[in-house]
Amino acid sequence: MPKTELESLKDAYLSSIATEQGKSKKTVENYTRYLDRFFSNTQVIHPKDITIPIVEKYRTGLTVLKTNTQNYHLTALRRLLDYLKKHQVSSLEPEMIKLTPSTTFSVQSMSPHDVRSLLQASQGKDVKSLRDRAILLLFFRTGMRVSELCALDVDSFSDNRLVKYGTGVRARSVLLPTEARDALCAYLDVRSDPHKALFVNNGKRFSSEGDTRLSVRQVERIIKQCALQVGIVSVVTPQRLRSLYAQDLLKNGADVGSVQELLGHQHVASTKVYYKNNK
Hints:
Blueprint: H1 5-19, H2 25-42, H3 52-61, H4 67-86, H5 112-119, H6 127-142, H7 146-151, E1 157-158, E2 161-165, E3 171-175, H8 178-189, H9 216-229, H10 238-251, H11 256-263, H12 268-277
Antiparallel strand pairs: 1-2, 2-3
């Protein structure tokens, strides 16, 4: 059975996020499943068939799922519509699809004492300590995603700036505050290996083969260990540090649009979560 126009466009979109945006195999599989569910439930054939009534009926069918899972489905659809718009294919405007408000999500804060303590973690001069301190300060001072941090290469850092890729294909250049820049320079000064990754697993023997780049899970463990090292018993994660960065910007008068750009959010609704929790 030949594919519909919309199915062909969906396949092109999924191919683009794998090749152009570098999305993981798991992410592509998830988006495929979410979009296939939308097509199966709505029976849409052409891009112009996607309308608000169709989406709202689909949303109603998702209410048996957890709120976050509902939003994963809606986000996948919204990203497909972004793709169609970019390629001048007439369909529903992506902004017309609103995510389901979560009743459970809250931005966890940290006490000023805990923040000061965590900033004093990993004060050693060995390569591992310097690496861990640079990681901490990048989270605190730039609010980057853990996936962005793990994807950084040594040559991503130049002229006091980091070039990072977020959830889209557009690269973003971030000016590093002095403290974060100095920590990163101190770490790179003691690196003597040939690997291109900015943050490497020093537990592995350096060689010209194999990937020594830190994984997301390894970075999460590093943050947890740094917190325990200074006596913080509550759970500290990269996302929590990113949240603190956003909260600090808003407390100091930054507008939501500026924070959205700094965090790399595609939709302002994601940023407004921090704004609401900061009131």
